[in-house]
Design goal:
Blueprint (H helix, E strand, L loop, with lengths): L1 E2 L2 E4 L8 E9 L2 E8 L2 E5 L3 H11 L4 H12 L7 E4 L4 E5 L10 E3 L3 E6 L5 E5 L4 E4 L3 H38 L6
Parallel strand pairs: 2-5
Antiparallel strand pairs: 1-2, 3-4, 3-8, 4-5, 6-7, 7-8, 9-10, 10-11
InterPro entries: ComK
Pfam family, one: ComK
Organism: Parageobacillus thermoglucosidasius (Geobacillus thermoglucosidasius)
Length: about 180
């Protein structure tokens, strides 16, 4: 269904093309507006429910991803979420995820950001779209850096594991073991 130039969906899974998930009110209902590289959709789900469903879709619970963030970088409040690290799908909340005004931003798509005079932040995406967020510049910058730290640490761990596996494989082959 299409309303006011938005396609309305019953459900949604975040992908590499998702730039932001915002709260959206339509006909007295609390939904989400999803901003993708190539369009925008209204989804009949709350933003946090989209984040949780996306985590489930990629094989981990939201709680597990949140606990993983705490284990990797020690962040417990407004934690960035690695929805699917192999595809670089990392999102972060602008305020508490339980707050109905929370916006989720994809780290991959943030091109630049700047403060406004009203203690808000304008976020520019790589495809030249932008969003005005009701969050301070410093809070936004902190969330962005936390997410960068999570991405870096997880990437380093995945690369170290891959190097170790390659080393073990080479050692096994040099000792006469053959892969079958």
């Amino acid at each position: 269904m299409k309303v006011n130039e938005f396609i309305i969906l019953d459900q949604f899974i975040i992908s590499r093309y998702t730039m932001a998930v915002l709260p959206h009110h339509l006909h007295g209902n609390s939904y989400a507006k999803v901003v993708e590289e190539d369009g925008e959709y209204v989804v009949k789900m709350r933003p946090l429910d989209i984040i949780k469903r996306s985590c489930d879709y990629y094989g981990a619970s939201f709680r597990g991803r949140r606990d993983g963030t705490r284990a990797v970088i020690g962040v417990t409040h407004k934690a960035p979420i690695a929805i699917e690290p192999l595809n670089e799908i990392y999102v972060f909340p602008t305020i508490s995820p339980n707050d109905s005004r929370c916006v989720w931003i994809s780290h991959l798509h943030v091109y630049k950001y700047e403060p406004t005079k009203n203690d808000q932040t304008i976020v520019y995406f790589a495809n030249e779209k932008s969003l005005l967020l009701d969050v301070s510049y410093y809070s936004f910058m902190n969330q962005l850096y936390r997410t960068a730290q999570l991405r870096t640490k997880l990437s380093e761990r995945m690369e170290a594991r891959e190097r170790k596996l390659q080393y073990v494989f080479r050692m096994d082959r040099s000792n006469g073991w053959q892969q079958r």
